[in-house]
């Protein structure tokens, strides 16, 4: 049986909203859960997303945008 789109039952990925320096936003960027946690918290997610952006920029021929901030989806702000 196929799984429903948008579900993450095993917690394999954490999702992040990314805001770039030009205030554009990309929603629900997937980051493997095994990279997160520990003393670094969500900082490995930033590095993972930056690497994805570099690859995308290389293929498109455009320079990658700088990340202003990342926010984990589903976590309430303090």
Description of the molecule:
This protein has 78 residues and is of the alpha+beta class. It has one domain (13-72). The chain has 1 helix and 3 strands; from the N terminus they run ββαβ. It has a 3-stranded antiparallel beta sheet with strand order 2-1-3, covered by helices on one side. Strand 1 (13-20) and strand 2 (25-32) form a beta hairpin. Residues 25-44 are annotated as: Disordered.
In short, what is this structure?
This protein is α+β, with helices and mostly antiparallel strands and 78 residues long. It has one helix at 43-60, and strands at residues 13-20, 25-32, 67-72.
What structural class do you assign from the helix and strand content?
alpha+beta
Beta content: 25-35%
Kindly report the spatial arrangement of strands forming the biggest sheet: 2-1-3
SSE order, one letter for each helix or strand: EEHE
Question: Radius of gyration from the CA trace?
Answer: 14 Å
Main beta sheet: 3 strands, antiparallel
Shape field: globular
How many separate domains make up the residues?
Answer: 1
What is the number of strand segments? 3
Number of helices: 1
- First-to-last CA distance: 39 Å
Helical fraction = 10-25%
What low-confidence regions span 5 or more consecutive residues with pLDDT below 50? none
Estimate the mean pLDDT confidence. 86
Region (Disordered): 25-44
């Amino acid at each position: 049986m196929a799984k429903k789109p948008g579900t993450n039952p095993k917690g394999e990925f954490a999702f992040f909203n990314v805001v770039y320096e030009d205030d554009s936003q990309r929603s629900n960027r997937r980051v493997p859960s095994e990279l997160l946690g520990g003393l670094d918290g969500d900082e490995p997610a930033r590095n993972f997303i930056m690497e994805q952006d570099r690859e995308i920029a290389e293929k498109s021929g455009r320079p990658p945008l700088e990340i202003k901030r990342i926010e984990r989806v589903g976590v309430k702000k303090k």
